């Protein structure tokens, strides 16, 4: 794959830049393009180094520890504590998602039945919302009189 074929979403990069910059500073398109190219280069170097770390461990899958070791090797140790924190948070959300998924799988109901129940709950909720709106409208009319 050619580096020129790869890019990062410009809107996402622009949003990140905007969040970092002071309000009185601006960022032109050429500067954003340099940031994007630098980011791609960094990701390629980090991916390559992580791949080497995995190969050294005789692994076919790059694991988080390979990426963290690659960052150490590339002398980006200052990134590691925050990335370890992000990794712990990510694993926590994955566990919650897995529990939720297994809850539905263990319910004994088919996906179609679960969808039918969900649609019924939505229908009841809409009905209650419409009734509440109607009751509030009646109350407002009474108060206006």
Automatic annotation (TrEMBL):
One of its GO terms (biological process) is negative regulation of transcription by RNA polymerase II. Residues 125-145 are annotated as: Disordered. The keyword Signal does not apply. Transmembrane segments: none annotated. GO terms for cellular component: negative cofactor 2 complex. Residues 7-71 form the Transcription factor CBF/NF-Y/archaeal histone domain. Its main location: nucleus. Residues 135-145 have a biased composition (Basic and acidic residues). InterPro entries: CBFA_NFYB_domain, Histone-fold, Ncb2. It is found in: Nucleus. Keywords: Nucleus. GO terms for molecular function: protein heterodimerization activity; RNA polymerase II general transcription initiation factor activity; TBP-class protein binding. The keyword Nucleus applies. This is Negative cofactor 2 transcription regulator complex subunit ncb2. It comes from Maudiozyma exigua (Yeast). The lineage of its organism: Eukaryota, Fungi, Dikarya, Ascomycota, Saccharomycotina.
């Amino acid at each position: 794959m050619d580096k020129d074929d790869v890019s990062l979403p410009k809107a996402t990069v622009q949003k990140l830049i905007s969040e970092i910059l002071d309000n009185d500073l601006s960022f032109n398109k050429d500067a954003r393009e340099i940031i994007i190219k630098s980011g791609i280069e960094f990701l390629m170097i980090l991916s390559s180094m992580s791949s080497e770390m995995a190969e050294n461990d005789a692994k076919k899958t790059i694991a988080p520890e390979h990426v963290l070791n690659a960052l150490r090797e590339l002398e980006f140790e200052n990134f590691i504590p925050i990335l370890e924190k992000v990794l712990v948070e990510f694993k926590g959300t994955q566990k919650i998602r897995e529990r939720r998924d297994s809850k539905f799988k263990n319910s004994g109901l088919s996906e179609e039945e679960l969808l039918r129940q969900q649609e019924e709950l939505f229908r009841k909720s809409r009905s209650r919302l419409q009734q509440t709106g109607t009751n509030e409208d009646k109350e407002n009319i009474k108060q206006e009189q």
